[in-house]
Amino acid sequence: KNHTNHNQNKKAHKGGIKRTQRQKYSSLALVNQKLKRNLKRSKKFDPSIKKGAILAKKIQARIEKKKDIQAAIKKAIVNVILHGPKRIKFVDPNADSKKSKKDKK
Known about the structure:
By secondary structure, the protein is an all-alpha fold. It is built from four helices and no strands. About 55% of the residues lie in helices and about 0% in strands.
């Protein structure tokens, strides 16, 4: 016996036969150079694309957030230096706020 096709379809469909993935953007390799230049400039100078303004706002927001965090860290360090480290008590949110049985007696 030199050849058989037995079990080959089962093996092929085990992981599923997938379609080939399409490219998200087609290549501009063989496109007219004038068109490519025009596309590049239209993307760069289009007033409806406000990349810079949005990016500047995001950067400014991050800077402000960073300053707030740094201020909180400095405040915590000063408190530790002045008052020593504090122990944080764990409060169970599910526990009743009433006194325990020992306190009632």
